[in-house]
Amino acid sequence: MRIATWNVNSVRSRIDRVEAFLERNDIDVLALQETKAVPDQIPTMNLEIAGYEVAAVGYDQWNGVALVSRVGIEDIKVGFPGMPEFNGKAEARALGAVCGGVGIWSLYVPNGRKPDDPHYAYKLEWLAALKAASSEWHGTPTALVGDWNVCPFDEDCFDPSQFKNSTHLTQPERDAFFAIEADYRDVVRPHVPGPEKYTYFDYYRQRFERNRGLRIDFVLGSPTFAERVTGAFVDLEERDPAKFAGAPSDHAPVVVDLAD
DNA sequence: ATGGTTGTAGCACAA
Predict the structure, then answer these.
(1) Which nucleotides of B are covered by protein (CB under 7 A)?
(2) What is the β-pairing status of strands A29-33 and A2-7?
(3) Residue A243: is its pLDDT beyond 90?
(4) Which CATH class is domain A2-258?
(5) The pTM is what?
(6) One of A28, A122, A147, A198 is an active-site residue; which one?
(7) pLDDT 10s digits, A85-114
């Protein structure tokens, strides 16, 4: 089984590329983040023709996550137990389901904006709640996949000195990520040590062309998931502005292969 | 520090 995660930065503006990506890489399950769509807005006709089912959640134009699967979508969960809201407003940042016998959570961790912004505290609170909830599932084959908006190590950032007053590299964010890694393993890092390790490139300043990116999209596997992983890669072709018509997402998909 | 580029319910704001 082949599983992928991709912050698509609007599924409506890139539905053709989603379909092409699924076909090009022979994907069984795709977790999407930043769909920027409510479920009714997600065009599924061609996906249905190709045999994929879609589960999605979205309340407004900013967030939204989805799962696309051709190996079934069962036991769908919108949000995880204890998932915090921001200012009392529910946000579409987590969707779980069982696909092909494996629990997959599509996660869009809050960005945090700036260290002194309320969204930063919300991000830490959100990750702590995910730690608590996910520890309940780690005995089953489960993957926590998505855009984590955290660089766990300096080597995951093209230039840490540029992030002194920014989010993503702060110790509290890293500690929150590492707490979850106590139960789950990064199953991609061993297969993608570098230099093709970055999953996000800012649209500005030709960051992709200069390979100046961040590794912030992760597949964390429970022990019984991780032991089945046979390979992984970052699909940098999908992020390459020169490869396809139209603007790419600012994130590249991450692909993981699982033994049966 | 600033700027640069995408996306959306856009002519402001989030990333």
Answers:
(1) 1-9, 14-15
(2) parallel
(3) yes
(4) alpha beta
(5) 0.97
(6) A147
(7) 998 888 999 999 999 999 999 999 999 999
